[in-house]
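Recap from last week: sequence in, structure out.
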Amino acid sequence: MEDKTPLPSFSGRVLAVDYGDVRTGLAISDESLFLASGIGTIEATGDRALARKINEVAKSRGVGLIIVGDPINMNGTRGPRSEKARAFAEKLRAETGLPVVLEDERCTTLSAQVFLNETETRKKKRKAIIDALSAEIMLQNFLDRIRNLKN
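Predicted structure tokens:
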């Protein structure tokens, strides 16, 4: 289920946030909004500290828009995780002053797991990269969709 909210106008790169309780994955677009690249994970105690760290990343990388993964249930309903992501997106919007949109992240973690299986990435290394890879997949899906809307 795609969010039909119109995309806010922005200039700069797009930062994707795969919000998590322990680790939060980040990915960023290139300047042409064509390609997504995972840039790692961050950990923070509490949403306020996490929002501050993400704001630092956004400022240092010329970000103009942030997307936050919305873990909508497979049947399209919103559960507690989705509500938590929505609340965090509001905190992030207040902290950064940037437009923040929610992006359906269904199946991004599954896609990341399939990719890691195919590349035979072992368990210890998987934990370190799966959140950033999930953010990268979510961001690439977003970039592909907005590019197709322009055509």
